[in-house]
């Protein structure tokens, strides 16, 4: 399914027009707009499930559109108060969703198919609710809860037939600065999760809810199907994850059992990310069930935060391994400052290319798989990598080399090397 994001004159982004893939990476300096792109995608990808839910609840078209714009303002407080006209647009398959500001007035538009279907579905909802009021005992309560308007069912079935479930994905958003929440426990997290969106950042609220679900999943699942991933998690966190009721621990490689709240900043930062990633691995009995058609999107801000380059590499390899083995249609949206993170993915891309070239040389393939396991190799075609700077996005895919471009990766080291050269030129001990 083709996807496209367009941003014009919003939050410092002048002209963004990008195509999305399965693994999407936005890299650039701070305040370059990486998170703005990710948040726009999170908002727009929630449009279809939000619309379907609003129809089923009997919400009017005007109320739905007003509530969606309120959510947009909550995602971008202050940024939407823009003197410039701006456009935010998302396209997927043959549908679009757009928020536009003209003369400081909002216009919220979306594909006609939703308008027509929603109108028909709302009529069905109204008729069904009227019948339920007049004949309250005519239908079983479970039937009423499970009921869905035929027009809405047909639309959903049509979309899923054409695109799988990609237009209605389950989304999870791993925010930056997550280490703060690892020190919070049960009742505090529950309180924050239930706080109205008007009083708390909605992405923060979503993250807390999703983090708690991932914790419970890890507690219940027991890790039996995740052993193949634990070498990587141990490399990342320099120990083992340990969950016991409301308490989280890191069992360090030297045997010390440290409460997460007292662990290192890197361990605190990466702990929620690891739980979210491990939650993408289903239990063994579910691997070949109906979930094969489900679609999931995981957003990760700054996966490299507070981590040494070796651990950053292990994060990239873990993400690739989960991506390759997930039965879901899995998509990553990643924002990062780290060139190490990109070079790690470059290794996996290169390994995939070598595997194709060596397909008829089993001895060489065996050597290759010892360096980079087959389960971590990813084709370049799955990647879209963009460098954001000065309000624009530039693709960093070098299709001639078949790798992520090294130009941006080398820029920081070039500046540092140039400066070091200037310093050496002043050093009297280096002069003849």
From TrEMBL:
Residues 3-341 form the Endonuclease GajA/Old nuclease/RecF-like AAA domain. InterPro entries: AAA_GajA/Old/RecF-like, Bact_Antivir_Def_Nuclease, P-loop_NTPase. It comes from Hymenobacter elongatus. This is Endonuclease GajA/Old nuclease/RecF-like AAA domain-containing protein. PANTHER family: ATP/GTP PHOSPHATASE, ATP_GTP PHOSPHATASE.
């Amino acid at each position: 399914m083709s996807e496209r994001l367009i941003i014009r004159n919003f939050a410092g982004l002048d002209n963004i027009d990008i195509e999305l893939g399965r693994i999407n990476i936005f890299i650039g300096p701070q305040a370059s707009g990486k998170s703005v792109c990710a948040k726009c995608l999170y908002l727009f990808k929630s449009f279809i499930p939000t619309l379907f839910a609003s129809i089923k609840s009997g919400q009017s078209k005007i109320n739905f559109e007003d509530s969606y714009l309120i959510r947009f303002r909550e995602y971008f407080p202050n940024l939407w108060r823009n003197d410039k006209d701006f456009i935010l647009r998302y396209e997927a398959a043959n549908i679009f969703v757009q928020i536009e500001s003209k003369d400081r007035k909002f216009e919220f538009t979306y594909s006609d198919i939703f308008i027509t279907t929603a109108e028909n579905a709302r009529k069905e909802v109204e008729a069904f609710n009227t019948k339920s009021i007049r004949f309250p005992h005519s239908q079983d309560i479970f039937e009423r809860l499970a009921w869905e308007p035929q027009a809405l069912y047909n639309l959903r079935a049509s979309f899923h037939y054409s695109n799988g479930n990609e237009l209605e994905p389950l989304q999870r958003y791993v925010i930056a600065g997550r280490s703060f929440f690892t020190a919070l426990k049960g009742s505090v997290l529950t309180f924050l999760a239930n706080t109205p969106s008007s009083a708390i950042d909605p992405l923060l609220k979503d993250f807390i809810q999703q983090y708690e679900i991932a914790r419970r999943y890890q507690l219940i699942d027991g890790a039996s199907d995740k052993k193949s991933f634990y070498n990587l998690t141990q490399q990342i966190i320099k120990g083992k994850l340990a969950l016991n009721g409301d308490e989280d621990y890191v069992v360090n490689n030297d045997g010390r059992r440290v409460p997460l709240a007292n662990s290192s900043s890197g361990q605190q930062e990466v702990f929620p990310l690891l739980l979210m990633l491990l939650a993408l691995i289903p239990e063994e009995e579910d691997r070949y069930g109906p979930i094969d058609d489900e679609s999931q999107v995981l957003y990760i801000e700054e996966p490299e935060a507070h981590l040494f380059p070796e651990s950053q590499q292990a994060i990239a390899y873990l993400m690739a391994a989960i991506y390759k083995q997930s039965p879901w249609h899995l998509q990553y949206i990643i924002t990062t400052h780290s060139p190490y993170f990109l070079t790690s993915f470059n290794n996996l891309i290169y390994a995939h290319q070598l595997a194709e070239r060596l397909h008829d040389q089993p001895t060489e393939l065996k050597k290759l798989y010892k360096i980079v396991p087959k389960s971590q190799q990813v084709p370049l075609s799955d990647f879209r990598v963009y460098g954001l700077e000065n309000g624009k996005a530039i693709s960093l895919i070098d299709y001639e080399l078949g790798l992520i471009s090294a130009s941006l990766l080398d820029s920081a080291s070039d500046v540092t090397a140039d400066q070091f050269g200037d310093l050496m030129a002043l050093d009297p001990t280096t002069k003849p």
